Sequence to fold (124 residues):
Amino acid sequence: QVHLVESGGGMVQAGDSLRLSCAASGDDISYLGMGWFRRAPGKEREFVASISWSGDSTNYADSMEGRFRISRVNANKTVYLQMNNLKPEDTAIYYCAVRQYGDSWVSESAFGSWGQGTQVTVTV
Fold:
């Protein structure tokens, strides 16, 4: 069983950057894909980015590619999400999760062991 804890959220202005962290404990995640999702106020949770176990392969939602970067340090059991040029529409609770089911790298149903989330608020 994997336990995930997200951190690094906060309130920033449009154009600023934040780096989110997802620390894992319990089972080894070194051989598992990981992902970030977010839930904006009044909306469904949506895919943000995912990364293979080695870090060699990544996937991004179209609206975030070029601004966000997912990475991982397996020795530290941590996955990161670097977010640059933040926009007010990026305001959401950001969650990390383990890719555990099926073959999709973007579908919420392929991920489990969700963390509690970290709030990101971007003001104009």
The CA atoms of residues 71 and 79 lie 6 Å apart. The chain has a mean pLDDT of 96.
